[in-house]
Amino acid sequence: MEGQGLGLDLPTFIGQLVNFLILLAVLTIFGFKPIRKILDERANRIKESMELAEATKKEYEHAQAEVQKRIQEAQKQGEALLTEARSIGERLKEEAKAGARREAQAIIEKAQADLKRDQDKMIDHLRREFAGIAILAAEKVIHETLDKQKHLRIIEETIRESALGKKVN
């Protein structure tokens, strides 16, 4: 009865203790195990998600590195194409200049040939006029008419021998 002084009744205490143990067993069987199972599954899903996120991150970094590598390759190819285009442009420009020079040279040579031909015609014309004048002068001097062919031959020989003929040729 000393236990009554403390307000403890032994049969009530034992009943409450048995109820508590039954409740604990029921909660353990039906509550804690399913809750633990749910928490473990959730922990596994979180772990899998973290692993998947890590794998995705690594895959992203790998893809980013690959993209960067391809960008650099494309830049190198672009620079190579630009360099090649510039060299082709320079070559075409030089070829065009050379073609223009050849055309200019051909025009100059044709003009020189035309000038030479015109000069030769003028010289021939002047020789004939000079021969005609010389014949007239000779006729007046000697008062007799010479054979024109013979006279032309004499004049041409004289012109060839003279300094005038040497300068013209």
Describe the fold and architecture.
The chain has one domain. Helix 2 packs across helix 3. It is mostly helical. It is rod-shaped and about 190 Å long. It is built from 4 helices and no strands. 93% of the residues lie in helices and 0% in strands.
Topology readout:
Layout: H1 2-5, H2 10-142, H3 148-161, H4 163-168
Helix pairs in contact: 2-3
Tally of alpha and pi helices: 4
Helical residues, percent: over 70%
Structural class: mainly alpha
Estimate the global geometry from the Cα principal axes. rod-shaped
The share of residues in extended strands comes to: under 5%
Question: Can you count the beta strands?
Answer: 0
Low-confidence stretches: none
Brief write-up:
The protein has about 170 residues and is mainly α.
